[in-house]
Amino acid sequence: MKKILSLFIITIVILSAALVPAGAINCNGYIDTFYSECYILLCTDNDEVLFSKDINKQTKPASLTKIVTACVILNEIHDLQQTVTVPTEALDELIGTDSSSAGLRVGETYTVYDLLCCLLIPSANDAATTLAIFLTGSDRQAFVDKMNAIAEELGCENTHFTNVHGLDDDDHYTTAADMAKFLQYAMKFDEFREISSMATYRLPASETRKERTIRTTNYTIVGSYRDYYNKYIDGGKTGYTKEAGQCLAVHATNNGYNYIAVAMNGPKYDIDEDGYEENGAFVDCKNMLDFAFRKLRLVSIADASRIVGEVPVKYGKGADYVTLSPSGKGFSLMPSGVDAGSLLIKVVESSVPDHVTAPVKKGDVICKGKVYYADEPIADIDLVASTDIRRSMLSYLGTAIVNIFSSPAFKLIVILIVAALITLTVMNRKGLIKHKKDVYNTVDYNTYFKDGKGRKGKK
Questions:
Q1: How many Cβ atoms from other residues are within 10 Å of residue 70's Cβ?
Q2: d(CA 293, CA 255)
Q3: Residues 244-271: tens digit of each pLDDT
Q4: Architecture of 31-295 per CATH?
Q5: What's the pLDDT band for 434 if we cut at 50, 70, 90?
Q6: Over the stretch 98-145, which tens digit does the pLDDT of each residue have?
Q7: Domain layout of the chain by residue ranges
Q8: Closest Cα partner for 179 from 244, 126, 229?
Q9: Preceding omega of 359 cis (within 30 degrees of 0)
Q10: Measured at the alpha carbon of residue 142, what is the angle toward residues 136 and 146, in degrees to the nearest 5?
């Protein structure tokens, strides 16, 4: 039953996205406090942004970078069971950076899948450099170019990458909005979804040590971390550097609703005064997702049976006006308790024509409308004719005749004809027009018959 309900909701959301352009209620006021500098909650079903702050501000992504690093690997390498030997240079370049790592050792051999687990679960920088060298060798820029190509493909104009791990660099930056796009892209890979939802992973034994367990840095998927845990989160990535602050990007799904929450440059702060500092980015993402799953529901915002205005119609049979209604049933995510009666649809006056000309078909787009909730616009819609209006031929022909006789062209023709007649009359009276006399050839009767050209009569 849950699967059927999920499919139904997904279908409704997809249809509503086609009928109503993206727009949504601003939910910021429903959560008392946010801790991160930039954050966004995006419904990926119809691209509604529900919570947002400084989502296009360029900021450092820290290890959220590894989402894109993983995407490059998953795009380029299809056999994830290929083995990779950890090279010396992969570790040497991280010396002195105090990087997060999986403790990889030179000469150890793992599969690409194992290294992706190291990359995404404990956020290992040594796994990032090892994978980059495996794909593009010593040409690190070639790998980074592939990362920037993904950014360009997704339209992330405020993003630029210079490395594969996310260590701070002035030219290495992104935004919360762009990071939501990257995570949405990454979640299309089954392996990314699978790995990034793991709390732990048993890393196989290598040439130098036994099998061991690596653990996630993403406490929002660990039930024992009650301040952060959300059971609907099914993938994501953490990040932290001194300049980037606490960062998190996660995907969550339940009953057909799908969300991405991103929080960047969050603090470590003793929020509940229990003597322990909480991760502000984790708290922000949890709060946004908790609110979305508990409080937001699909609401019809554009009922086609609702009349919202009218426009004059010319040549209408029995109708001087055509009434306007929304183009179809559109839906948007709204707080529980809000229904269609709480929404207002206004005609966009600048889009309204002076009139329409019959015949008019039901469903013809006439102008634009806006949907408002609490005086805030939440969606743009098309307003269409709510009924058919046939053309009145008598009215049309009568108007056409009147228009012909009243047209400047017709008046000019009449004036020219009258002027020509007057001119001819005046010229005739003054004898200026010479009349040609009829001229006949005469034949002498006697000569005619004498020449044998005729006969006088029968004998």
A1: 26
A2: 9
A3: 999 999 999 999 999 999 999 999 989 8
A4: 3-Layer(aba) Sandwich (3.40)
A5: low
A6: 999 999 999 999 999 999 999 999 999 999 999 999 999 999 999 999
A7: 31-295
A8: 244
A9: yes
A10: 100
Cβ(134)–Cβ(118) below 8 Å: no
Note the pTM of the prediction, 2 decimals: 0.76
With beta carbons less than 8 A apart as the criterion, state whether 161 and 172 touch: yes
Token match 């990535």: residue?
A: 237
The residue count of the chain comes to 459
Cβ atoms 68, 172 nearer than 8 A: no
Q: Phi and psi at residue 114, in whole multiples of 5°?
A: -60, -45
Tokens describing residue 363: 């469903």
